[in-house]
Amino acid sequence: MAKTALITGILGRDGAYLAKALLQRGYRVVGAQRRNAGINSGRLEELGILANVELGDMELLEESNIHAVLRRRRKTRPRRFIHAARMA
To answer: What is the pTM of this model?
Structure first.
C-alpha cells in the first residue's frame, strides 16, 4: 500500500509542487482546501497531476473539522501531514 500525504494549501504554488514531488515518490496525495475558497485547480492541471490528487474541504481553524476529515479518511492514515498554505 502506498504511503499517504495530506497537504493543506494544495491549490497554491508550494502545495502543488510538493504534491507533484510526492506523487513522483509513490505517495498517495490527499489535498485539503478551505471550504469557501473555491476550486482553482489551474496549477495542478498545469503540472498534469489533477487526476492523481484527491481533493477535500478542511477548515484549519475548526479543530472538530480536522478530526472529522481524518475520521472520514480513516483508511488514509496519512504518514505526512503538511501545511503548505500561505500565511496572510
So the answer is: 0.79
